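Per reviewer request, we include the raw input and output of the structure prediction for the construct analysed in the revised manuscript.
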Amino acid sequence: MAIENLMVTLHRLPEIKAVVDTGTDLVTLFGFVLTAIAVIVGALYNSHTFKVSVESQERVAEGSARLLRDQGRAEAIAVSRQQWINSLRDEISHFLSLGYDVHTLAQFINDTSWVSNVKTAQFEKNKELYDLRYTDFSKKVALARFHFAKVELFLNPKEPESAELISAMSEYINAAVAYRSVQDIGDRTVAISQKILKKEWEKVKRME
């Protein structure tokens, strides 16, 4: 009996487990690693987002600057073209007005019977008046040709309408000097001028 009890007792010995204390809390360590990873990932994400945002803002700013440059260039061209239109219109107006004055004076310059077919006393007076009119006539012809030359510089002679206007203006001043009818030629000059000015004005409107 004693031996059997002893054997039973030996078979029921408690299980012995070894517990090793490493001094490290694995749960805490794992949490720290996760936190570090989260911080790094967050920093990388924020850096990427910031970079994308900056690049986007730079593109927007560059696009806005380009748009402003294009608008500024278009506005400058439109203003320059408007000044060109105003100047051309003024030069043509001055030319036509002077041509009318030349035509009026040409009556007395081309027909000298009012000077020669008079008595000696009246002849001297008429000749003095003729000289004054001739001086005025010459000045106005020169000034008309000056404005005519400026109009030529404004235009491109290779363009049909510009060539037509130059031709009409030349015919107008030559007729005025010779004291021929200028009414129809003047009307044609105005009509061609209006056509050119309208076309240029439409270009300016498209630039705005």
